[in-house]
Amino acid sequence: MTGKSTMDSWARFTPQQRMKRYGSFFVLALTVAWALRSIDVIWEWVWDAPIQLFDLFDRMVPPDPTNLPSILEAIWQTINIATIATFIAVFLSLPVAYIAAQNTTPNRITLWIGRFILVSSRSVNTIIWALLFVAIFGPGIIAGIIAIMFRSIGFLGKLLGEAIEEINPEPIEALEACGASRFKVVLYGIVPQVMPAFFAISILRWDINLRESTVLGLVGAGGIGIILQGAIDTFQWQEVSMVLLTILALVIVGEVISTTLRKKIL
Amino acid sequence: MLEIKKLVKRYGKGSPVLQDLDLVVQGEQVMSIIGSSGAGKSTLLRCVNRLVEPTSGSITLNGTDFTTLSSRELRSARRRVGMVFQGYNLVDRLTVMENVQSGRLGYISTWAALTRRFPKEDIQRAYELMERVGIAQYASKRADELSGGERQRVGVVRALMQRPEILLADEPTASLDPKTSEQIMALLRDLASELNLPVIINIHNVNEAKEYSDRIVGMRYGRIIFDDVPSALDTAQMDEIYSGTPSEDREAQGAMA
Amino acid sequence: MTAHPDRWRKPHMIESPLLRYALYFGILAYLVLTIATLPIDWLRAAEGLERAGRIFNGAFPPSFDRSELLISGFLESLKIAIIASTGGMLLSIPLAFMAASNISPKPIYYLGRGTIIIARSFHPVIVAIIFVKAVGFGPLAGALTLIVYSIGFVAKLLAERIEEIDFGQVEAVRAAGAPFLSTVFYTIFPQIMPRMIGLGIYQLDSNLRASAVVGIVGAGGIGSTLANAFGRYDYDFALAITMVIVGAILISEAVSGVIRKRLL
Lengths: 266, 257, 264
What we know:
- By secondary structure, chain A is mostly helical.
- Chain A has helices spanning 15-38, 43-60, 68-100, 108-123, 126-137, 141-165, 169-177, 182-216, 224-233, 237-265.
- In chain A, helix 3 (68-100) packs antiparallel against helix 4, helix 3 (68-100) packs parallel to helix 6 (141-165) and helix 3 (68-100) packs across helix 9.
- Chain A starts with 14 loop residues before the first helix and ends with a helix.
- Chain B has a domain at 1-79 and 199-257: P-loop containing nucleotide triphosphate hydrolases (Rossmann fold, 3-Layer(aba) Sandwich).
């Protein structure tokens, strides 16, 4: 006959686990505290910040549509930069993805070359590329288009390369057994398998590039950024908010288009 | 005629998967290879068209020694060997017609392959073969819309489109239900006689092997230990081939206990 | 024997030929028109190669002379990233709950979703410029910018995760009479915790990259150092800074990937 149970306590974690959890929390809190304390910030300004933000916001309302025609033209240019750059980058990324994928690369050297291209392209932000190309080609949309291209190749190539590595190798084996050349094996065995991923990745990158193109003008590489920078520099806050509204509309429409297209692919 | 002489396949430094194998396959016959898993059946078949590289030995098909070919010559020679796979190995997103025509990729131009403008004779022959095996109505359907048995028929037609001199089938029925399995085996047997084609089939199910083949080859640990007509395969022989395999597993493999 | 057909065409992805050709024509027309009307200064572009040569010559070898500047810039970026990630995560949690359709009432849901959409739609550089104008140059603007950036990303994904939870657990605990917060902590938090931690680590990495960029418009961190170097034509220093940025990003990406694999 059972008497009263002697177990009157329950804890989810063992003492060691608890130590570990408290320990990690402690380390995390310490890091954040270090960051907050040593950062070069005048704390009075921090508490002042909300007031400043509201003040700025106040000056931006209502948005001023007088310059709308040139704003819209710049938006059109921004769309073109993003679209054309993505289009070209998609083609350029195909060979890079091919040699960066472990199952299709001809040899180890090409694998490392492919990986190197992808990593360098991805690690340098679009804006930094833009800075470089503005210095080379001068201000204008050519710098912008090439900057977007360079950054996109890394993104596209990496995801496409991963898609290539994930294909089912069985059809490839069958095609080789039929005596098809390497090109035909790729055409019939690899291309159909990565097609859905290819479209999804390209459309995704186009959507991201739309956003990136809006700021190219801030470093002189074309698009709506130029008008935005101009309005900010001349303190025309109501024009600034107008520009921001058009950018918001552009990005939202772009995302809707991109999500719908990608849904249709699946 | 397929002539295999002293074929050896060794992976790394371990014991060889295929040991000093000799085999001759002549004229029109259906030959089944049986043996427990790991006996080397699949490796043997894949050595014929060098999907697996032999370590030593020679494999001669109607006068051509496959083991000495360069990669270009090998591609050319592979057109003469048709292969049917356990997993069907079709390109799922392509249509049945494209899958079937991919058997001709070794013959058609790159442009034709790219634009899917297949030669007229090839299209006609494709329809002929597809009707023979009963899938002509699926020509424009995607391969992954078909059932397992239908997909394997696509695989068979693809192999036959090559106009091969020999047909290899690696466990063609392992993924199919018993009824469909028998249909495919019957199909292979009938096609062998209609097209005057030697057919080599790797198979687990010994009953089916006995029923549909003219000759049975039993392998064990990389060697051929039985090579005779199906009626000569008795319990003693099967114990030899499958020895070391517990009887329950043998039941599962369809062998008679 | 019936004659077999000798022609076969692959069925097209877009069935209606009208739609298909309209699409092809539209794309072609777009490409031709826009490429033809692109305002490109070809002369300046041609000179570009020569200028590129000069820049690359000036950039090699990279100069690490002013490494204290480099290190302090990098540390500042790191601090901005840490603060922004923490602040962003803390703010994202309530926002994500607001933006989850299975938890919050319609008006709050729209408010939540709207806030997230606005936070996401603007490139962090734009947000940085606004903050710089509002609170001045320096890391404060950078931290605020990246908090917004983090919210846009984390709150959205967290809200989606909340919408995917097993609601049965919530109902069971609620039926037992538990108050709202207790229900949240007992049934919802455990389900979203792994995703939250994963997002947090990913966002730390992401903020480190982004802090390099927002610095270019004056929001502190190594980006400011880089912009200054470019402005002064110190291309060798700029290359050194870029190499450090790339190196930091690679290390951070690797570390973040390893931690996420081990924890989740």
